[in-house]
TrEMBL record:
PANTHER family in UniProt: HCA OPERON TRANSCRIPTIONAL ACTIVATOR HCAR (PTHR30346:SF0), TRANSCRIPTIONAL DUAL REGULATOR HCAR-RELATED (PTHR30346)
Name this protein carries in UniProt: HTH lysR-type domain-containing protein
Pfam families: HTH_1, LysR_substrate
A cellular component term, taken from the record's GO annotations: protein-DNA complex
Family statement drawn from the similarity comment of this UniProt entry: Belongs to the LysR transcriptional regulatory family.
Highest taxon of the lineage: Bacteria
Keyword Hydrolase: no
Amino acid sequence: MFDHAQLRSFLILGQLRHFGQAARELLITQPALTRRIQQLESDVGVPLFHREGRRITLTAAGIAFLPKVQLLLADMEEARRSAQKAAGTLAGTITVGFDGAASYTLIPRLIQRTIRDWPGVAFKFVELSSSEQMREVAFHRLDIGFVRPLPHEADIVNQCIFSEPLALAVPAGHRLAVKRKLKIADLDDEAFVGYSEAGLYLRDLIAGILDRAGAVPRVIQSMKRTHSILALVSTGMGVAIVPAGSASASFDNIVFKSLSLDERAEWHACRHVRPTNALTQPLIELLGT
């Protein structure tokens, strides 16, 4: 009666309650997402969402439908895994590049899912910047790179596999650490630790957020890696906007505060347009689910 794409679109929209964020998570346009939801509602026979301007909420029917959809998708995934395990086709070693910050989110997710689904697959990990990974992928010295979205050569394919919200990292005891509702405007004239040009994607993403809010913090240091930025925040040197997943880094004297932003930090899987390792695309698809 309805397909996997419709069910997954409903689940993501039901969780995020925002058409723009859900469309980015699903790697489709907002009109395409709207059509999927409308078709699903037609198939189910009842409205699943209330739409009031930009505000999206589940109807009573949608609330009842959501856990059933989660079970359906889990059953579909289990069926897929069972077939792949029975076929026994995925085994071997794959070389994977990653930026240091990917160790907070992507690398644990990759290892856990692969151990569960394809225990015959082994990894060789190489830590490099996003631009370095793209160069190594182009020369077939890496099978997959986990990179931030950056311009790349025509023989490279980038696919968004994960996005995460941004958070404000604040030294414990800082006045903003106890503020209940934070606005970007609160960072005006605040001592700030930012990303350097080597962290171009996050630097530009955060600069745009600050600019649209009219906030001009005092940038006292610029670093290329999230871990280095957090190390400076932990000393009380200033505050920083970072991907929320970095909260798993071990800094006891930093408070991470949620920010209500549409912007999210993306991770892309980078591969050669003609991969030489048969494991490359299946692993990217596994992470994409």
